[in-house]
Batch of 3 targets.
Target 1
Amino acid sequence: MNTTIQKLDELLAKVRAQLIEKKGLKEDPKQPEPTDELPQHPDTDYLIKVFNHLKDLGYINTQYEFSEQFLNKNKYYYGMILSERRHPSIDALHFLIKSISELSEAETNHQRLDALYEEGHSLITKRLLKNY
């Protein structure tokens, strides 16, 4: 059985070498390993923080609720942002910080919400200035 595997490995190596030569490709022995840990965008990190905090406070239970109630988007929006590693829209961020501001007024212990509001406001300002 080992000889069969060894023969297959040798055959695959020959075919690979022939393909590289035929197509004029350069062989790069140090190709990076695939990883699931791609960096998130700061706006996405912010959404994750807010989602977790609102969930801890009991305002939401699901990503669907967060998308609809706090981002003013369809129920799949937050999940799509996370899975596709996309930037949330400025209008979604704006609606979120507006909602956070309203919650902060209603909460007795609102320091964390105030900090999240300030962080969101800063992110929107940076995005707008970058596009200006």
Target 2
Amino acid sequence: MRRLEAIKGFELFPERRFDPDFPMVFWLAGIWFYLKTFLYLCYLYMLGLDPTPYSAAAKFEIFYFAVALVPAFILGVGFWNEKAKSWIFGIVYLVIDTPILGFHVLRMADEGYLDSGLSQFFEIGSLLMNVIVLGWLIGSNSNVKSQSVKQGKSKMG
């Protein structure tokens, strides 16, 4: 029963995300993690189209994308519901995810799958979005901390 009450506090697409005072960094991170979930489903589908037997790198990517899409979805929900610790888990996730995604993009380029402009846009664009969201989350968090330190000093002084 308590579990259902905890789930009731979450909405997949909360109306609050359209409020002018909703944190933009949480909005961007939330939508990126939702899109990342869909993107990883697409990657799994595309990797499944590779001829068997799969290389060791492809097997690793299949396993990673299958596992990583679950926390990506949870983080999307967490960010859009303004959960306080979402940024910590988001940063940890992106610090792990960005090099693996970079490896994936390099492997795709090496195997000739980035010949089309659309493939380049999605593959390189997803890697770039990881870096942008990671930087914004880190920068936003450090800005909040520096403002709280300044407020604490002014109260003491």
Target 3
Amino acid sequence: MVILLVAGAGAYLYYENRRNVDVGVFLSSSPSDTCGLQNYTEVWDGFNNTPGATIDWEFEFLNANTTGPCTPTNLTTNTTGFSISDVTWNQTSVPASPAPFDSNDPEDGIGEVSFALATPGSSWSGNVYLIFN
């Protein structure tokens, strides 16, 4: 009886873990140097959710452009199975024009990016890459 219970619990945990979408971290890049991010990478903690879910997500985000305002026009991902929609910067749909980063006041260059993230339809584990344009 004990062996049957242990085997059943093990099978249940194995099945449940295979149905998860486990994002370790979000990594950012900007090949077009949007907001001065070509040589700067943001990293945010990930999450655990079920396959096929769409979740609302947001991050504080640094405008690393020291020469003037940055104008994000899009946020995408090249991570297979994920898609991004409804992108806003400081509650304004992109494109937006956040204030320029002021090296004398680091808080002046902090903004908030929010978006809807659709997860893959089956179990998945890894990091998600965000591309700012």
